[in-house]
Amino acid sequence: MKACRCHPVLNRQFPTRIDQGGFSRSRIGRVTDHLLVSTVPLLGADVAARIAHVQTRRWISHPTAEEAHEAMHQLLERPPSLRPRGLLLTGAYHNGKTMIIERFAVEHLRQSDRQRVWIIQTREGAGMAHFYASILAGLRAPQAAGWRSLARAGEQVDHLLDILKPRLLVFDEFHSALRGRRQDVKAIFSFLRRVARVHDISPVLVGEVAVYDAIHDTEEMGSRFDTLPVPRWRYDEDFATLLDSLEASLPLAEPSGLSREPMARTIHTLSEGLIGEVVDIVTRAATVAISRGEDRITADILAALRYLPVSKRRNAALRNEMT
């Protein structure tokens, strides 16, 4: 059988794992066998509809995401504990951490009659006042007049936790809470320990590597958390699977061969292994292809994007024009 890719590492056909609500890939014909069943009807849609589909945010499953979901599921279903463990989900920016936790929370709501997973968007700003405000907003609670009183805000948070009885509190962008004075950070960690003990809550801290450093600054806090890194993507078979999955969702009649050399290598280099960048690159390229009336993404289209990797944007020509 002829290999589907030219690169020796990327030479195996993988199942597609991308969806907007449980789609599955199926071969329905020679012309469209590279597409999801749900994507095929869009080939006959107008340009605006096809571009809107391409630009729609979609869930992309991958091994790290599956591992994170399993870890959070274990915390969700654990027996009661006086010292419940937490989870650190840390890694580079723009690499899909927020989508991982949002997907888990949505799937939990679909399967449960009571919300036990709450996502807290950690606010910028140091100190417990900002931290309490983040929690109250995440729990969709009106902030009482005089919320800046720490004692009053703390009482309100405890009251809500006692009523709602969450099992997981997921703090996204938790590194935002670590930019204050050392005593402020210690107060936040003390709060996490207390609510874990009093309310039997497992905290899930999501953010950049600074979160890992701060938690493991002391053995006492480090002993309370398991760590799951969300690393940049390597140029390997998992990356090929990701590109196959993305291509299957694009309403382009002809295969683009994104997972073949040299396209795969180009996308990996431009994205620097960040899944958010990969999606941006493929989305922009597909949008250009559809706008031009072309049926696939080509190397010329990728080049026409003039896409700059994150690490090179600070020294870009555009920046120089501002001085």
Automatic annotation (TrEMBL):
Keywords, sorted A to Z: Plasmid
Entries under Gene3D superfamilies matching the protein: P-loop containing nucleotide triphosphate hydrolases (3.40.50.300)
Protein name in UniProt: NTP-binding protein
Species this protein is from: Paracoccus zhejiangensis
